[in-house]
Design a protein that fits this description.
By secondary structure, the protein is an alpha+beta fold. Helix content is 34%, strand content 9%. The protein has one domain (9-63). It has one helix at residues 42-63, and strands at residues 9-11, 31-33.
Amino acid sequence: MRAGRLRGAALDVFEHEPLPQDSPLRSMEQVVLSAHNANSSPRAWQRVHQRALENMLQVLENAV
């Protein structure tokens, strides 16, 4: 990021959790930081479970 090879980054997992206050990532304008559990709403989990079930059913249907 410092070298300018990347135009930007969106990060939600860090080597040290939580991301330290003095991390250089916090001051980079081209970086978006988010908590890793940002998708942990009830609606998001419902979609994850629904898709998992649909994928399993598709595999089972194709196995017959």
